[in-house]
Amino acid sequence: MDLALIWAGIIGFAVFVYVVMDGFDLGIGILFPRIQSDEDRDQAMNAIAPYWDGNETWLVMGGGGLLAVFPTVYAVLLPATYPLIIAMLVGLILRGVAFEFRWRDKRHKALWDQAFFVGSGLAAMAQGMILGAIIQGIKIADNAYAGGLFDWLTPYTLLTGLGVVAGYALLGAGWLVWRTDGRLQNRARTWTFGLTVIVLGLVALVSFATLFVQGAYWERWLSFPRILLAAPVPVLAALAGLRLLTGIDRSPDHMPFVMALALFAMGYAGLAISIYPDMLPPSLTIQAAAAPPESLWFLLVGAVIVIPLILAYTGWAYWVFRGKTSTKGGYH
Predict the structure, then answer these.
(1) Phi and psi at residue 61, in whole multiples of 5°?
(2) Cα 329 to chain center, whole Å?
(3) Domain boundaries of the chain, sorted by first residue
(4) Distances from the Cα of 32 to the Cαs of 37, 38, 101, 253, 274, in angstroms?
(5) pTM (predicted TM-score)
(6) Of 316, 159, 180, 313, which is closest to residue 257 (Cα–Cα)?
(7) Residue 222 to residues 81, 162, 217: CA-CA distances in angstroms?
(8) Residue spans of alpha helices (H) in 214-292
(9) How far is CA 243 from CA 31, 249, 266, in A?
C-alpha cells in the first residue's frame, strides 16, 4: 500500500473541498461592490451565513495534515510564500470580522461591507498566487527553501491569482443564482455570463503559460501516451464553459453553480496532471516529502474516523439550510 500517495490524495481532496466551499462565499465578497442595494447585500450575506465559517474547516485540515504528513513540504512552502500566507490570513480575518460587525454596527455598515470585499479579494488573490508559486517551482536545497523573499512575485503568479479571483467570483454568482430569487438572482445570472467569459480566457492563458513554466509540464501534457489521459480535461472544461454561456437563462437554478464546480474540478485535474509525481515542483516528489510509514499509518486511522464525521455534519448543515434565502432577518 502506497501510504504517501494515499495521503497526497487525502490532502488534495481537503484542499479541493476548501476551494469550492469557501470559494463561493469569498466570491460573493468579491462581488459585493456590484450588489448595490442594502436589501440585496443582506440577502447575499444570508445565503452564506450558515456555511462560511464551517467551510474553513477544510483549510485547517489541509494545512494541519500537510504539517503532519508532508513536513518537508510544510517547511519549504511556508518560507517560500510567507508574505502571501500572511496576506491570506489577514484577508480571512478581515472578512470574518466584517461579517460579524456589519450586522451589529449599523452606523458603519458601509465600512464593514468594504472590509468584506477587501478581505475576500485579498484572500482569493493570495491563494491564487500561492498556487502559481507552487506550479512555477520552488528552489530547494538540503530539504530547505533556497530562494529569495520575493521569488513568488512573477507575471505567472499574478495571472494565477487573477484566475482564482475570477473563478471564486463565478462560484459566488452561481451560488446566488441557486440560493436567491428576484432582482438579485437576475443580476447574478448576468454576472455569471460575463464571469464565464473572463474565467475561460484566464484558464486558457494560464494553461498555455504553464506548459513553458517547467520543461516537464510540456512532456506530461503532450507526450504519448500521457496526452490520452490529459486530453479529456480541457475538453470537459470547454463543455462546462459552453453550458454556462448558452444555458444560463433556460436551465435550473442550480446549473450555473454545478458547471462552475465542474470548471474547478477540471482545473484541479489539470494541476494534478502537471505536477505529478512531484509534491513541490521541480524536485520534491511525493515519496521524498512523506513522513515515516509509522506516522502515516497512525494518522490514517484518525483520518478514516474524522473525515466521514466532517462530511456528515457539513452535509447536514447544507441540508438543513437548503432552499432559497429570505431577505428578512439576518445573521446573528
Answers:
(1) -65, -45
(2) 29
(3) 3-320
(4) 10, 10, 16, 20, 34
(5) 0.92
(6) 180
(7) 30, 26, 8
(8) 215-222, 226-230, 232-247, 255-275, 286-289
(9) 22, 11, 14
Type and span of the H or E element at 115: helix 109-136
168 contacts 27 by C-beta, under 8 angstroms? yes
Which residue carries 498556487 as its cell? 131
Phi-psi sector, 143: left (phi>0), alpha (psi -120 to 50), beta: left
Mean pLDDT, rounded, for 207-225: 85
CB atoms within 10 A of CB 219: 12
Average pLDDT over residues 201-212: 91
> At 70, is the secondary structure helix, strand, or coil?
coil
The CA dihedral of 132, 137, 138, 142, to the nearest 10 degrees, is 150
Say if CB 222 and CB 200 are below 8 A apart. Answer: no
Residue written as grid cell 456528515: 312
- What's at 241, amino acid-wise? G
pLDDT band (50, 70, 90) for residue 182: confident
Contact partners, residue 81, CB within 8 Å, separation at least 6: 129, 130, 133, 152
245 contact partners, CB below 8 Å, separation of at least 6: 193, 196, 197
Kindly tell me the number of DSSP H helices and DSSP E strands found in the chain.
14, 4
Residue 324 exposure: Cα atoms within 13 Å on the Cβ side: 10
pLDDT digits (tens, 9 = 90+) for 93-147: 999 898 888 878 778 888 999 999 999 999 999 999 999 999 998 998 888 888 8
Cβ(3)–Cβ(293) under 8 Å?
Answer: yes
* Cβ partners under 8 Å of residue 187, min gap 6: 34, 35, 40
